[in-house]
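Why do we care about 3D structure at all? Because function follows from shape, and shape follows, mostly, from sequence. That is the central idea of this module. The next example makes it concrete: a single protein chain, its amino acid sequence, and then its structure expressed as tokens.
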Amino acid sequence: MIDLFEPRLPEDKLHPSFCEIKSNPDYAKVMPVIQGWSAGLLGRKGEAEKFVNEFQTTFNSSMWEIYLNKALSELGCTVDYTKSSPDFFVTSGGTYEFNIEAVISDQPLGQAGEGESALNFKNRCALKLAGKIRDKLRLYRGSDGKKHPYNSLSHVRGRPFVIAIAPFDSKHSLLQNNELINLVLFGIGSPVVEGGVIKQNKVASIITASGAPVEMGIFTNDSFKEISAVIFSTVATFGKAVVESKIERLVRATRYRTIEKERLPISSPLWQLGIHRFQLDNFHYLLTQRWDFGRIVTGSDMYIRHSSFHRESHLDGLHLYFNPYAEVPFEPSFMWPNEVSLNYYDPATDQSDQIHSDQALVSRQVFEPSFFWMQHLLNSYGFL
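And the structure:
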């Protein structure tokens, strides 16, 4: 197998993330994890050299493809690597076939986005996600004069077409959770608390800097009917490989929590309503948020802890969004594991149904195991 980490270009051409991995001895155990994720992907004739060059020079887009490659294996799927376009021609259960095209919303040139307001950041990132999905739809349709549009390929026609997208707009992208993809696909605005109740307004469009409206909620009508589903994650990053390598790090992670009231442990401090903080052990802190939703109590657990306390699967944090208007719907009986959150929209009720299992991973970051970072994290989340 081709070595992803054997530099093939002059150092000034290499991506900073690639250089950091190569130069930091702490990451010696991380490199073989990423190499293992790429099994099969680097065997494509005429494509492997190009892919390795892109990995070393642009990094994020290739990292996302490598993550997906391993995720498909974890899901029990096989990939036909003789088909290089779209990115993955997938078979599940021996007979069910579908295609995945991978894309990222990449970082803007220069220092764009630094110091901007939260609203501007969210709008910019949502516009970027929408634009990247639209670009891939144009490739499918052949709208840009592509010689062999995806819809002309025999292994694509009549099969579900899935777009897998991840945000790499800025260092804050990992904290957007699924809020902005909800906006883009279902037109759901940011959650707000009013009178102790969480509400989310509908958003029809976002105005660009030039004053042009861009449609949000693209899965609430048939304008993107060629797209069967969207795969999304904010945690399928280098940090995922760091966690899987089991090297020493500090981890800040948030997991969704939900429980039926009849199953609530009696007088459990971890399920009391509101916001509460606990120190569970040295280097292990927990912030809980709980809300009463009638039949259930729901909220989140945010941990700050040493990596020895942290457990995370490769599929943790992955979302799938189904397009109810898809010309070729994604098979509803596909067996998704509990780590994967499933998101639906019902045109009849104009409501979304977002199925997140208890303990579903929402977000995760990793930091060097130092006093500085521990103090920074504890200060940031109100423990000090």
